[in-house]
Design a protein that fits this description.
Blueprint (H helix, E strand, L loop, with lengths): L1 H17 L16 E2 L3 E2 L3 E2 L3 E3 L4 E5 L2 E2 L3 E3 L4 E5 L2 E2 L3 E4 L3 E5 L3 E2 L3 E4 L3 E5 L2 E2 L3 E4 L5 E4 L2 E2 L4 E4 L2 E6 L2 E2 L3 E4 L2 E7 L2 E2 L3 E4 L5 E4 L2 E2 L3 E4 L20 E3 L5
Parallel strand pairs: 1-4, 2-5, 3-6, 4-7, 5-8, 6-9, 7-10, 8-11, 9-12, 10-13, 11-14, 12-15, 13-16, 14-17, 16-19, 17-20, 18-21, 19-22, 20-23, 21-24, 22-25, 23-26, 24-27, 25-28, 28-29
């Protein structure tokens, strides 16, 4: 009798799982495994996360990544015309270059590495380049839904970018250039050393420069482009 009851219960459970529209019938699809790049990847679609492991060198050309992009310790990335649906993150990477009409939908953050270069691309979710021992270069980048922070690097070039929110360039050494940027909110250039140029920038709100040594040089900056805002601090006359 016990065996018969067990069989009936098992059959009932199987029937329940088979019923359309029941919660029990919904079995989640397995997650895509990470793709590791330690060489070259071309014009293919990566279904999940792409990882550049520690000490590896990865070259991506026209690669579409449906997850995030992560660059490991002492790793090198050279990326051209890539698309990243998630974030692009690097921690202690040796060298990162993202260029040539690449697009990152999520947040881009590169920290505590050596050199970082992002050129001629779009980064929808904002960009942070911080605490790198080499130069940070951001040129010709469009940031559609966030700001741009370039902080505590050994030198910084920030040129001809379009930034939806704030542009903050602070505590960089060995020379800083902030030129020809169009910014939706404020521009702040603070506590940089080694010579700072602030020229030809346009902000909808304020442009403020403080505690740079020596004081910045430059001209042609426009604050309050949408009708309010001002130039203050060391940039008042620039």
């Amino acid at each position: 009798m016990k065996k018969l009851s067990s069989a009936i219960a098992g059959a009932a459970l199987a029937a329940t799982l088979a019923l359309p529209g029941t919660a029990s019938a919904e079995i989640p699809a397995p997650l895509a495994a990470d793709t590791v790049c330690a060489g070259s990847i071309g014009a293919v679609t990566v279904p999940g996360k792409l990882v550049v492991p520690a000490n590896a060198t990865c070259q991506l050309t026209s690669t579409r990544i449906l997850g995030s992009l992560e660059i490991g310790i002492n790793a090198t990335l050279v990326a051209s015309r890539i698309t990243v649906a998630g974030d692009a993150l690097g921690n202690q990477a040796r060298s990162v270059s993202i260029s040539n009409l690449s697009h990152v939908e999520g947040h881009t953050a590169m920290s505590k590495g050596i050199t970082v270069t992002i050129t001629g691309s779009t980064a929808f979710g904002g960009v942070e380049i911080t605490e790198n021992t080499g130069r940070a270069t951001v040129t010709g980048v469009t940031i559609g839904n966030g700001g741009l922070v370039v902080d505590k690097n050994r030198g910084a070039t920030v040129l001809s970018n379009r930034v939806n929110a704030n542009l903050m360039v602070a505590e960089n050494s060995s020379g800083v250039s902030v030129r020809s940027n169009i910014v939706g909110d404020n521009i702040g250039v603070n506590k940089n050393t080694g010579g700072t140029v602030v020229a030809g920038n346009r902000a909808n709100d304020n442009i403020d420069c403080t505690d740079n040594v020596p004081a910045p040089t430059g001209s042609g900056n426009v604050a309050g482009a949408d009708g309010g805002g001002s130039k203050t601090g060391q940039c008042a006359g620039l």
